[in-house]
Structures are given as C-alpha cells and as structure tokens.
Design goal:
By secondary structure, this protein is an alpha/beta fold. About 35% of the residues lie in helices and about 20% in strands.
Amino acid sequence: MKNETTIFGIRAIIEAVKSGKTIDKVFIQKGLRGDLFQELEHLLRSEGINSSYVPIEKLNRLTKGNHQGAVAHISPIKFHNIDDLVLNSIESDKTPLFLLLDQLSDVRNFGAIVRTAECTGVSGIIIQKKGGAPINGDTIKTSAGAIFKIPICKVDHIKDAVFHMQSSGIKVVAATEKATDLIYDVSFKEPCAIIMGSEGKGINPSVLKIVDNKAKLPILGEIESLNVSVACGAFLYEAVRQRC
C-alpha cells in the first residue's frame, strides 16, 4: 500500500524541500559526492529532516526510476504546530490529554497507537523529527485512517515537548517499567500528557529525569513487558476510566 508520495533525484528533492513540502524521510546513497549532494545534505540538516545513508540496492528497491542516489517520501499528512495545538486544547471544553512518543520505530505499532488515541479522544500526538517510525502506507492502514483525524506534531526532541507541556500546566506521565507507582496510583483527571518509549530502549533516561510522574502496568506473568501499542491502550483507557 503506497499512500506516501515517493520522489527521487537530488534536484527534485531539494526543490520539494524549498517549496515547503512535508518530507517524511530521505534515503541517500552511501558514498555519494558532489556539490549538489552537499547542497542537499546541508538543506536536510538545516531543516531537521530525517535522512538515512543506504546502499544503492535499497534505493533500487524503493523506485524503478533513475534515482540519482536519493529517494524521498513526502508525508501524507500535514503536521501541526505544537504551540497552536496546546493552546487550542487548553481553551477547549474538554480536559487535554496528549500522547508523546519517544522514537517509536515500528510503523504498525505507531498506526495501532494512533487508532487507539483517536478512539480515546487524545488531543494530539507529539513525535520527534528524527529516529521515529515514518508515516507511510502501513501506518495509515494500521491506524484505519485515524492518522487523518488526530493532530500530530513534530519536535526536535521529546524533551522540548515535555517542557512545553509543563510550562502550559499539563502534567507529564511516563509509562515505564522503572516506575514504583502502578498506573492506578496516578491521577489522569487533570490535563496530562503520557509518554510511551521505543520498542527496544523504552523512554530515554534524560526524558525520565524531567517528567512529573512515572507509572507502570502490573505484570503478572513471566514475560516482563507488553507490546508498546497494547501498553499505550491500557494507559489511555485508564485515563478515560478516571475521567468518565
């Protein structure tokens, strides 16, 4: 399922970025050289666009055209501004509930979380510009189209979003097995944001240091952790339960 738009060629990608297209990720051939390549590299760095250096075989699989060493995916959605999103949510009639995803890498987990977030009335989702799962056809399919119904923001680092939430009077709760409190011991009745970590590493330790609360789910079996999308669903529905 190819819902994202693929463009290829260094010059075409440069022009797409300059024209304001929302570029999800750029794949660049390893060992590429030349002035045009340097211009692209500088532009991607200055705009904070996610990029990856890959073998030429990867690029050949991504497109059948003459890619000239670079392939990009244009995001199928337009990202929201975090300032506007937070302000509009605070001024709305319902208590804000945000979801922060710290470098979640699996597109299907991402899609499943977006679907649950939309069903539980989440005000918006915040992700990092780099290191997270792209929004592509698999994300859209797994989200059952919810990706088009819920505001999503990108920030340079999840810590930026944490500080923004806290300065706006929104409590930040980290979902982590390192917590001493169970999810049922934490209040989600006031404006809050829940942070979910990546599949392998969890939440970045530097992020855990600045959150307001940490909470975990009780694990009664021998397997020590849940799939992140399942755990996220449990946290979001606990927030719903407390607010009903």
